[in-house]
Design goal:
The protein is of the alpha+beta class and 378 residues long. The chain contains 10 helices and 22 strands. A hairpin with a 2-residue loop joins β6 and β7. It binds zinc ion (ZN) (2 copies).
């Protein structure tokens, strides 16, 4: 009987797993002790060469990192110490996962799990179908209630990212992590059915450039009415990300902002950090006055060498797309947009979706010279 189960596991590995995503979960936490409890479907637990048992209603396993090995309890009964634990769903399955040390809010993940120790750290890998993974990513990205066509754009962008970066964490024993470093994947399984529909209806769709290469998909909350040149943010330009005027986002929630900063604080930063020529009376008069009708990369004049992105970081501004004027003892910043402004503008895209543009039209509007294609046909 045991041999049959082992053969079954091997078949599972060699048949289905090749299609799956390999996602390192709970990577923002150094997990020492964790439980996997049954939520839906049926699971089998394997530890090294031993078959431990099945997980069904009310059952759970607890895994603890002890002296570089995985100590396993099956329904509170100690099973020993192992190098690798595998929890395989027989069909569709979902587990509730709760890190006890450190304590992290429970999450629910679908499909299979591998637990091992890599570089002294407990490494939990969710082997998950692309569809289930993308639903989790889109859910983590932002709440429900958005237009179906907008979810489709998100699905295409996240799928493109997943294919392009599938080996990003190879050395750590998985493909992508679950943090914002890759794509947030913090499953609660509360997503609306529209997300799953969007993922299904865009099955295999990715964004490619003219040479059919997968593109890097940037996005931010609101571009403020002008999509930003990538070189303003990262110093190097990106072929398919070009600046242009976006009128779809200018009357939306995050379209404008105002911030007031004490003049002494603003002035000190510019003088100390960039040697702003405060001794020059003309320049001293101009220090709080700056107009930005179209996006610029530098404050007042490029020759002063004060990148707007540095001001954004220092004063925690919503964007670099702002003008300034003095008022009393303060400098008033009147800004547009939220985020770096490069690539897809989320509020603009949502507005396009509401105005009956298709997901392909939206994606092709925000990225220059790209097409939506089936990954299998590249
Ligand atoms: Zn990552
Ligand atoms: Zn926009």
């Amino acid at each position: 009987m045991h041999r049959l189960i082992v053969i079954f596991f091997l078949l599972m590995f060699f048949s289905g797993f090749g299609q799956e995503q390999s996602i390192g979960i709970l990577r923002d936490h150094k997990v020492k002790r964790i439980t996997f409890s049954h939520h839906l479907g049926k699971y089998s637990v394997q530890a090294d060469a031993s078959t431990i048992g099945t997980l069904s209603s009310q059952q759970f396993v607890e895994v603890e990192l002890v002296n570089g090995k995985l100590s396993l309890k099956y329904n509170t009964v100690p099973q020993g110490s192992f190098s690798r634990i595998t929890i395989v769903a027989n069909g569709n399955g979902t587990l509730a996962i709760k890190s006890k040390v450190p304590s992290v809010r429970e999450r629910k993940y679908q499909d299979h799990f591998h637990i091992s120790v890599v570089g002294g750290r407990m490494t939990i890998v969710n082997k998950v179908s692309m569809e289930n993974y993308l639903c989790g990513v889109i859910e983590s990205e932002g709440g429900g209630g958005r237009h179906a066509e907008y979810y489709k754009v998100q699905a295409v962008m996240s799928r493109t990212y997943a294919f392009k970066n599938k080996s990003r964490h190879k050395k750590e024993g998985f493909g992508l992590c679950d943090g914002v470093h890759c794509q947030a994947y913090h499953n609660m399984l509360r997503y609306t059915p529209e997300i799953r529909t969007a993922v299904r209806e865009t099955k295999g769709d990715v964004l490619v450039d003219a040479k059919k290469r997968l593109v890097t998909t940037y996005f931010s909350a609101n571009c403020g009415g002008e999509v930003c040149d990538a070189s303003h943010v990262w110093n190097n330009s990106v072929d398919h990300v070009k600046p242009f005027i976006d009128t779809f986002c200018i009357h939306t929630r995050q379209a404008t902002w105002t911030k007031r900063i004490p003049q002494w604080e603003f002035r000190n930063f510019l003088v100390k950090q960039y040697g702003y020529p405060i001794q020059d009376s003309v320049m001293a008069n101009r220090i709080y006055t700056f107009k930005q009708e179209n996006r610029k990369a530098f404050y007042i004049h490029p020759s002063l060498g004060i990148p707007l992105r540095d001001l954004r970081k220092k004063f925690r501004l919503k964007s670099t797309f702002f003008s300034t004027h003095p008022e009393g003892s303060e400098v008033v910043l009147e800004g547009r947009g939220f985020g770096h402004g490069v690539g897809l503008c989320q509020e603009g895209a949502m507005n396009m979706a509401r105005n009956k543009f298709s997901y392909k039209q939206i994606a092709e509007f925000y990225f220059n010279g790209v097409r939506v294609k089936k990954y299998s046909k590249l």
